[in-house]
Amino acid sequence: MRHLACRLLDTGPVLVLAVIAGAGSFTHIRDTAREHGQTGWMSWAVAVCIDLTCVMAARERHRDKRIGRVRRGPISWPVLVLTGGVALSLAANLAQATPTVWGWITAATPAGAFLIAVSMLERRASATQPEPPAQAETAPTPAAAPSGAPVATSTDAGDGPAPALLAYARRVAAEHHARHGRPITLDALRARLGVSDQLAADLLRALHTA
């Protein structure tokens, strides 16, 4: 409960600012669109498109920064879209202002406050999370051999499989031939002994040579 209250106190003012400033900027854009021929629902659609384009571009810009996407060119596409949306929003706000310095400043305040609130929310949402500690890499363990089978390894000299493993493979091959009436295959030997493809191939070659 205390954590929820702290969270509301932390983000509440920013959310309220975003809603109020967005409503003011939205109204200016809607009125400007209505005065220039976009009547009815179209004036609302124009205002929604411009404001949501700014929000979408701001989120995409922070997403690019978070994943480390490298931009191609002097300016990224989200920044270009955000700049265009801001320019349209400010132009609509200034069009509704009294042609004085203070008229322009006060008319541009909702658009500026809306962009500041959105940027603050995006900054908090894209905060870097602490990475989990790296786990020490462990060497892969060999596949478990069947009960009674010797460890799958080669001779220290590197000139072939270990004699004990070769003897066990010979016994497995003989049992397979007696049961199925045909020589054991590479895949069957590898699956039965639980060894790698390379070691199974070496064993099968040694059996054929013997």
What is the fold's blueprint, element by element?
Blueprint: H1 2-35, H2 41-67, H3 77-95, H4 101-125, H5 163-180, H6 186-193, H7 197-209
Region (Disordered): 126-157
Protein name: DUF2637 domain-containing protein
Transmembrane segments: 12-29, 41-58, 79-95, 101-121
Task: Report on the architecture of this protein.
The protein has 210 residues and is mostly helical. It has helices at 2-35, 41-67, 77-95, 101-125, 163-180, 186-193, 197-209. The model is unreliable at 128-145 (pLDDT under 50). It is 69% helix and 0% strand. Helix 2 (41-67) packs antiparallel against helix 3. It folds into two domains: 2-125, no CATH class; 163-209. It is rod-shaped, with a radius of gyration of 36 Å. The longest helix has 34 residues, at 2-35. InterPro entries: DUF2637.
Structural class estimated from helices and strands: mainly alpha
Task: Give the amount of beta strand, in percent.
Answer: under 5%
* Strand tally: 0
Helix fraction, binned, reads 55-70%
Mean pLDDT: 75
pLDDT < 50 runs, ≥5 residues: 128-145
Order of helices and strands: HHHHHHH
Biggest sheet, open or closed, and with what strands and sense?
none
Ends apart, CA distance between termini: 77 Å
How would you describe the shape?
rod-shaped
Alpha-carbon Rg, integer = 36 Å
Number of domains: 2
Number of helices: 7
Protein name: DUF2637 domain-containing protein
InterPro entries: DUF2637 (IPR021235)
Keywords: Membrane, Transmembrane, Transmembrane helix
